[in-house]
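#struct-help
A.M.: can someone run this one for me? Single chain, 199 residues.
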Amino acid sequence: MPDDATPWLVVGLGNPGPGYAGNRHNVGQMAIAELAHRASLSFKNHKAGASVAEGRGGGTGPRLILASPHTFMNVSGGPVAGLLRFYKIEPSQLIVLHDELDIPFDSIKLKRGGGHGGHNGVRDIIAATGTPDFLRVRIGIGRPPGHQPAADFVLRDFAGDERAVLPNLLSDAADAVELIASQGLTAAQLKVHTVAEKP
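D.P.: on it. Structure tokens below:
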């Protein structure tokens, strides 16, 4: 079971500015906003280069430090490493939420460690922290249709039919973070992955 005395740093990846806010690549930051909304938390600018909100998951659960870097996706590592140092949190207590092309839209997978899978934000966090040993909430956005380049696909807003389902996906991602923080990764995986596999 996680230690409630130690807060979790929960980081949602994306690109800064309103022009990117609705992009598929920003779904991690959207999920962070959902977590903050649930606990009625407000974000403040932090000197590490991120917007930060502190509180408890669901308002009464484990201590969470929610963060959205102010940098572009491919240089997310600096703010994340700075926040870990500032709050004296080990990477083992870091949860990163990010978009995942290799997972179908409206699905979520949880894991600890491993490679970056071509995701530049995750790649930079591994480089900046010196370890891949952090938790990931991988939010499925699916592969682009036809021959559309992946780089274009992730930098476009969700389609209309996707936007209708998006609130549920963000809620599922927020649920996953709260489960990890309160019950641990294995229990969270059992619940999240089992639900995803039901017909």
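A.M.: thanks! The domain at 8-197 is CATH 3.40.50.1470 (Rossmann fold).
D.P.: also worth noting: The chain has one domain: 8-197.
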